[in-house]
Amino acid sequence: MSSSTDKMTLEEFRTLEKTQPAMHEFVRGEARPRSVPGRAHSDVVMNLVGLLWGALKGTPCRIYSETMQVQVAEDAVLYPDVTITCDPDDMKGRTLKSPSLVIEVLSSATQSFDRSSKFAMYRRLSSLQEYVMVDPESKWIEVFRRTPEGLWALHDITEETLLLAAVGTELSMSDIFNGMGSD
């Protein structure tokens, strides 16, 4: 294993993940412990997974929740809250490399990282078409969608439905925030 002054390699990170009970994200050679989500966060994630599972049934796409890794590069492995991939190569193993949609449910502990560094890392994925941030506290959703020119356009969701163009489905805002507990 690396000393405290050395950066960890991807191989060392994979060994850590196999031997430690807690999940870590791998960012620029450092293992970062993944925060433990609260009830509101979990409620929103489960609502999204349920809604999207039904919407994707019968398609080649699969939805995964918080325990599946997304490898962005040799120096970045992340655990999104919700991930959708349609790439057949992603249908085996625990690591996804070609997601088309990533959803992060924000919390006070993760919001800054999710909005900045994490989003910057996800943008390195050529397969990614949409990055969605859901704020359970304010019940606000922001969607960043890749344009045909490769730029990222922000769409604040103020209507009653969330359009997820990457997978051709719409979700009701009331269904996304249904039965949400408090942290």
Shape: globular
Into which percentage range does the β-strand content fall? 25-35%
Classify the helix fraction into a percent range: 10-25%
The first-to-last residue Cα distance is 36 Å
Q: What is the tally of beta strands?
A: 13
Helix and strand pattern = HEEHEEEEEEHHEEEEEH
Largest sheet, strands/sense/barrel: 6 strands, mixed
Mean pLDDT: 88
**Model regions low in confidence, pLDDT < 50 over at least 5 residues:** none
Structural class: alpha+beta
Task: Summarize the entry for a quick read.
The chain is α+β, with helices and mostly antiparallel strands and 183 residues long. The chain has five helices and 13 strands.
Describe the fold and architecture.
The protein is 23% helix and 33% strand. With 183 residues, it is α+β, with helices and mostly antiparallel strands. The longest helix has 18 residues, at 39-56. It is globular, with a radius of gyration of 16 Å. The termini are far apart.
Quick tags:
alpha+beta, six-stranded mixed sheet, five-stranded mixed sheet, 13 strands, globular
